[in-house]
Each structure stands twice: as structure tokens, then as C-alpha cells.
Amino acid sequence: MTKCPRCKAEINYLIKYEIYDADETIVFFDKDKKWKEEWVDGVNFFSEEYRCPHCNKLVARDEDRAKELLNKTITKKEDVLVASIDASGTISSVTPIRKEISL
Ligand SMILES: [Zn+2]
Fold first, then answer.
1. Is this model's pTM higher than 0.70 or not?
2. Tally of helices (H runs) and strands (E runs) in the chain
3. With contact defined as beta carbons under 8 Å apart, do 11 and 54 qualify?
4. In this structure, are 46 and 88 located in the same domain?
5. How far does residue 51's CA lie from ligand 1's centre (Å)?
6. How far is the CA of 11 from the centre of ligand 1 (A)?
């Protein structure tokens, strides 16, 4: 389970939006009074957006980033104290070790 970087809700899927730009046409009556539609411009470019299902905010702009986000294992860093005990049974040293714990 991963968390939305924006709202911190736990998420296991994202909503993918594919955005296409519309064609631009002009409409008019020609000299014979016929209705005409003429294509002017159009852009093939489309972009992807991946949004959080909870807050609907943009969290990734490509599939790799979306996969990376959903694959992320949430880890928590915790200090663990490791004690060394010598042969006589007395604690000789206590060393704090920073450990990554998967939640
Ligand atoms: Zn969110």
C-alpha cells in the first residue's frame, strides 16, 4: 500500500486521464452560400495524467512515475538499540542502529 503524496490517503490505484487537443476548424458560408467547414489546425499531442482517487490531484505525468508511486513500499525509519554483552554478562556497549521497517 502506498500513500498519495498530496493528501496522504492510502491508495492502490490511480485514475488515468488521456488528454487530447481538439481540432480547430472554421465554419462559414462560401460564395455559393454553402455551409463550409475547413480544418485549420490540429495537434496530435496528447498527454497523460495520473490522479489520486481520493483528492483527484495530479500525482504522476507518465506511466513509469505512476508505477513507481504504486510500487513504493512505505518504510519507516526507526532507531533500534543493540546491546553488546561481554562474557561476564555485563552490557559493554549500546549502539543505536537506524533500521528501515516496511509497513
Ligand atoms: Zn490524494
1. no
2. 1, 9
3. yes
4. no
5. 8
6. 8
